[in-house]
From TrEMBL, chain A:
<dbReference type="InterPro" id="IPR006058">
    <property type="entry name" value="2Fe2S_fd_BS"/>
</dbReference>
<dbReference type="Pfam" id="PF00111">
    <property type="entry name" value="Fer2"/>
</dbReference>
<keyword id="KW-0408">Iron</keyword>
<keyword id="KW-0560">Oxidoreductase</keyword>
<dbReference type="InterPro" id="IPR002888">
    <property type="entry name" value="2Fe-2S-bd"/>
</dbReference>
<protein>
    <submittedName>
        <fullName>Carbon-monoxide dehydrogenase small subunit</fullName>
    </submittedName>
</protein>
<keyword id="KW-0001">2Fe-2S</keyword>
<dbReference type="InterPro" id="IPR012675">
    <property type="entry name" value="Beta-grasp_dom_sf"/>
</dbReference>
<dbReference type="InterPro" id="IPR001041">
    <property type="entry name" value="2Fe-2S_ferredoxin-type"/>
</dbReference>
Automatic annotation (TrEMBL), chain B:
<dbReference type="InterPro" id="IPR036318">
    <property type="entry name" value="FAD-bd_PCMH-like_sf"/>
</dbReference>
<keyword id="KW-0285">Flavoprotein</keyword>
<dbReference type="InterPro" id="IPR016166">
    <property type="entry name" value="FAD-bd_PCMH"/>
</dbReference>
<dbReference type="InterPro" id="IPR002346">
    <property type="entry name" value="Mopterin_DH_FAD-bd"/>
</dbReference>
<dbReference type="InterPro" id="IPR016169">
    <property type="entry name" value="FAD-bd_PCMH_sub2"/>
</dbReference>
<dbReference type="Pfam" id="PF03450">
    <property type="entry name" value="CO_deh_flav_C"/>
</dbReference>
<feature type="domain" description="FAD-binding PCMH-type">
    <location>
        <begin position="1"/>
        <end position="166"/>
    </location>
</feature>
<protein>
    <submittedName>
        <fullName>Carbon-monoxide dehydrogenase medium subunit</fullName>
    </submittedName>
</protein>
<keyword id="KW-0560">Oxidoreductase</keyword>
Length: 153, 286
């Protein structure tokens, strides 16, 4: 089937999409947007987190056909040209990125948190990031990054 | 595979009648895992996310099957505190943004978190097909492990619940605060005006299940109209009867013995919290 969807503000079209395919597969394999990562394909790790109509979701759990005529924003759509989003900058500066595999999902999820709650408490940050796994950092630097981004926004 | 995309409920029911083999997909948080892992290859998917009738609620309360958990938590917490509590424990924020009560009922896992609350609160499930509408009390909806009372041509349309008339609680045991399938769970709803309580267990029998003996015991043991501090013996007996209502198994998440024990503890504690809230409310009114 064909899927028409707005991705990062651009009207995109994916062809030959299998009906049981996930949004994550469409983004990575058909639209050339490999920022969202594929680790578990079962909603457990959060590395595929994207905005769907402004709400963060696991792209691996959205059926491709469900995004027809909807709006998707991926980690690739956060920066303003060459200027990183403050959340991305904070992740770099705080040392919250090691292998980087979890980073795109965490950045999108943290971005949403700060949009909704400009000055989140630590429990609020932990709760918001509870669905994102990181094998490298031990999370402390990630929390630092979110606090840093909040202080700058 | 076909991807069916109805825009209205009537259209969806028509499609489901023509294609009983089509698998409904709402939030996809159960269905997509099965597809991604090749556990299921349906001949068609029936997307329910474009149907406005399923995404809304009306006073009374009739909650559309497709309302995601996040909206229940943020917008219906005052009317449905028990359901909101259970919703808060589901998965992660991303899962709660997408997952729905209709999907929880469709999957009918014995471990689904909304089930004990729906049972304890006398929820009625509205299902429909081109043949008409059926109202199924939650207690008659769960038929077996991952089996529910839906016919092949039916869809779950809404859940009917009365706004809470008294304190409600939900409790769940798991290894962390997020992303856990319940080892066991428990829901309780007080109906002070009717001198009774609803109580139900999850993940501790082939289906979610009401603890009727515990309900009857409490109704006869205490005075809801004039709530006094509960005797320890009453709380303990209530916990024991809840535990006895379960018939759990040993599995990777926990042993049957542990589940029995944990249910008694959860029932005792949640009753204590709910009762305290009832007494505090009485005092505030006095
Ligand atoms: C990482 C992760 C964590 C999870 N954690 C929890 C948890 O803590 N607690 C919990 O209870 N569940 C949990 N789940 C399971 C799942 O999120 C819930 O069962 C959720 O309620 C399913 O809703 P959905 O809208 O996503 O359902 P879907 O996946 O869209 O559908 C689920 C089933 O219901 C059927 N269905 C859906 N809507 C209807 C309808 N209106 N009429 C008829 N049939 C319908 C579908 O055909 C399918 O069989 C988790 C899942 C994941 C991936
Ligand atoms: S790949 Fe989607 S949550 Fe892990
Ligand atoms: S930085 Fe490697 S998984 Fe998080």
């Amino acid at each position: 089937m064909r899927v028409n969807v707005t991705v990062n503000g651009e009207q995109r079209q994916a062809d030959d999409v299998w009906e049981g395919e996930s949004l994550l597969f469409v983004l990575r394999e058909r639209l050339g947007l490999p920022g969202s990562k594929n680790a578990c394909e079962q909603g457990e790790c959060g590395s595929c987190t994207v905005y769907l109509d402004n709400v963060p979701v696991c792209a691996c759990l959205v059926a491709a056909g469900q995004v027809q005529d909807r709006e998707v924003r991926t980690v690739e759509g956060l920066a303003d040209g060459d200027r990183l989003d403050p959340v991305q900058e904070a992740f770099v500066e705080a040392g919250a990125v090691q292998c980087g595999f979890c980073t795109p999902g965490l950045v999108v999820q943290a971005h949403d948190l700060l949009d909704r709650v400009p000055n989140p408490s630590d429990p609020e940050i932990r709760e918001a990031l509870a669905g994102n796994l990181c094998r490298c950092t031990g999370y402390e630097k990630i929390l630092d990054a979110v606090r840093l981004a909040a202080s700058r926004r | 595979m076909d991807f069916l995309r109805p825009e209205t409920l009537a259209e969806a029911l028509e499609l489901k009648a023509q294609r009983p083999d089509a698998v409904p997909i709402a939030g996809g948080t159960d269905v997509m895992v099965e597809l991604n892992y090749d556990h299921r290859r349906p001949s068609a998917l029936l997307d329910l996310t474009r149907i406005p009738e399923l995404q809304q609620w009306s006073d009374g309360l009739r909650v559309g099957a497709g309302v995601p958990y996040v909206r229940i938590i943020e917008e219906l917490g005052a009317e449905l505190p028990g359901l909101a509590m259970a919703a808060r424990t589901v998965g992660s924020p991303q899962i709660r943004n997408r997952g729905t009560v209709g999907g929880n009922l469709g999957a009918a896992s014995p471990a689904g978190d909304t089930h004990p609350v729906l049972l304890a609160s006398d929820a009625v499930i509205e299902v429909a097909s081109v043949r008409g509408t059926r109202m199924i009390p939650a207690a008659e909806f769960y038929l077996g492990v991952k089996r529910n009372a839906l016919e092949q041509d039916e869809l779950i349309v809404a859940v009917h619940l009365t706004p809470a008339k008294g304190p409600q609680q939900f409790s769940k045991v798991g290894t962390r605060n997020a992303m856990v399938i319940a080892v066991c769970s428990f829901g309780i709803s007080l109906f002070p005006q009717e001198n009774r309580v609803g109580a139900a267990v999850g993940s501790a029998a082939p289906t979610p299940r009401r603890a009727s003996e515990a309900e009857q015991f409490l109704a006869s043991a205490v005075d809801f109209g004039n709530p006094r501090p509960l005797l320890d013996s009453v709380k303990r007996e209530f916990g024991e009867l809840v535990s006895r209502a379960a018939s759990p198994i040993d599995d990777v998440r926990g042993s049957a013995a542990y589940r029995k024990h944990a249910l008694a503890v959860m029932a005792r504690r949640t009753l204590g919290w709910a009762w305290q809230e009832l007494m505090d409310g009485e005092r505030a009114c006095a």
